[in-house]
C-alpha cells in the first residue's frame, strides 16, 4: 500500500507514480529466492505478475502506462478506480488559500506464476 501526493498542479499521474514507489518501498521480495529457482532475470520477469490498483479522484486523468513504468520488473497490469483526495474542495476553496493538492493511493499485489519457475 502506498500514498502519493502532488502539491502543485494536481497531476494525478505524478501522484500515482509516487504512490506506487511508496508502496514498493514498503515491501520485500527477498524470500522469493528461497522458494523458487530463477535461472535468469528474464525468467523472473516472466514469472512475476504485478497487479496495481490506483485510487485517484479523476481516474481518467491517470496515464496507466506512465504509472506502470516505475515498476522494476514483472508483467504489469493496472486498474484505476475513483478514490484519493483533492484539496481544496469546492466548499473550502475560498478559505484554503493554498495550491491545489491531489492524493492518490496504490495497492500492489505481486503473484508468482509457479508453472513458469522451478521450486526449491
Q: What integer value in Å does the Rg equal?
A: 17 Å
What share of the residues lie within helices?
25-40%
Specify the structural class.
alpha+beta
The tally of beta strands, per DSSP, is: 7
Shape from CA axes? elongated
- The number of domains is 1
Q: What CATH architecture do you see? A: 2-Layer Sandwich
Task: Provide mean pLDDT, rounded.
Answer: 89
How would you concisely characterize the structure shown here?
This protein has 120 residues and is of the alpha+beta class. It has helices at residues 12-25, 32-35, 41-47, 64-68, 93-96; strands at 2-6, 36-37, 48-56, 75-82, 85-87, 101-112, 118-119.
How would you summarize the topology of this molecule?
Layout: E1 2-6, H1 12-25, H2 32-35, E2 36-37, H3 41-47, E3 48-56, H4 64-68, E4 75-82, E5 85-87, H5 93-96, E6 101-112, E7 118-119
Parallel strand pairs: 3-4
Antiparallel strand pairs: 1-6, 2-7, 3-6, 5-6
What keyword list fits this structure?
elongated; alpha+beta; two-stranded antiparallel sheet; 60s Ribosomal Protein L30, Chain: A; 120 residues
Q: How does this model look, in words?
A:
With about 120 residues, this protein is α+β, with helices and mostly antiparallel strands. The protein has one domain: 2-Layer Sandwich (60s Ribosomal Protein L30, Chain: A), CATH 3.30.1330.20. Helices cover about 30% and strands about 35% of the residues. It contains five helices and seven strands, in the order E-H-H-E-H-E-H-E-E-H-E-E. The strands form two sheets. Strands 1, 3, 4, 5 and 6 form a five-stranded mixed sheet that branches. It is elongated and about 60 Å long.
Amino acid at each position: 500500500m502506498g500514498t502519493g501526493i502532488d502539491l502543485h498542479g494536481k497531476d494525478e499521474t505524478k501522484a500515482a507514480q509516487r504512490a506506487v514507489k511508496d508502496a514498493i518501498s514498503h515491501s520485500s521480495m527477498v524470500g522469493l529466492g528461497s522458494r523458487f529457482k530463477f535461472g535468469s532475470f528474464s525468467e523472473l520477469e516472466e514469472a512475476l505478475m504485478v497487479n496495481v490498483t490506483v485510487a485517484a479522484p479523476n481516474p481518467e486523468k491517470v496515464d496507466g502506462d506512465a504509472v506502470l513504468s516505475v515498476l522494476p520488473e514483472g508483467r504489469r497490469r493496472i486498474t484505476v478506480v475513483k478514490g484519493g483526495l483533492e484539496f481544496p474542495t469546492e466548499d473550502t476553496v475560498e478559505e484554503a488559500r493554498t495550491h491545489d493538492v491531489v492524493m492518490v493511493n496504490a495497492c500492489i499485489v505481486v503473484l508468482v506464476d509457479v508453472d513458469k519457475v522451478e521450486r526449491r
